[in-house]
User: What shape does this take?
Amino acid sequence: MVKILGISGSLRKASFNTGLMKAAAAGAHEGVEFETATLHGIPLYDGDVEASDGIPEAVTALKRKVMAADGVILFTPEYNNSIPGVFKNAIDWLSRPSADITKVFRGRHFALAGASPGNFGTILSQNAWLPVMRTLGAELWSGKRLMLPRAETLFDQDGRLTDAEAADRLRAFVKAFADFAGAESGR
Assistant: This one.
């Protein structure tokens, strides 16, 4: 069984990217265990808080999920042509203490996917993730990226993916990534 973790980079209840992540989990192929995670409960990173209180439980819980996964898909929105601050903040927390970078990121397989109301479907956000993932030593899957433009036409008002073609592309993307992550981890 290949274990894939999807993390949504949006806090919004009817987020396109949370909806995309949920659709990925619901449509995962046989042999793929797809777990989902959100960023709710992760505070803004503050080195003084880390020094006095340690790593917050929400961060520790997300770290455990990442470390248990063969592959992680970042379902990233695009805010102002780049990475959403809340998503980058969560990744910054996951890299603390710095000794954990190796356990959490180094050699772990990551993929990028996203949906956006814009015409380019999160390409700039996904590009902005590249140096971050390289710095952390993650193995960024370059087989495919999934970018869904004009997301408001693909999802209903509750954030559920309703477009059949987009759902087919999503299933193919998840299957290809799971096949890659499973083969690389020996599963």
Summary: The mean pLDDT is 95. The domain at 8-185 is CATH 3.40.50.360 (Rossmann fold). The first helix runs from residue 16 to 26.
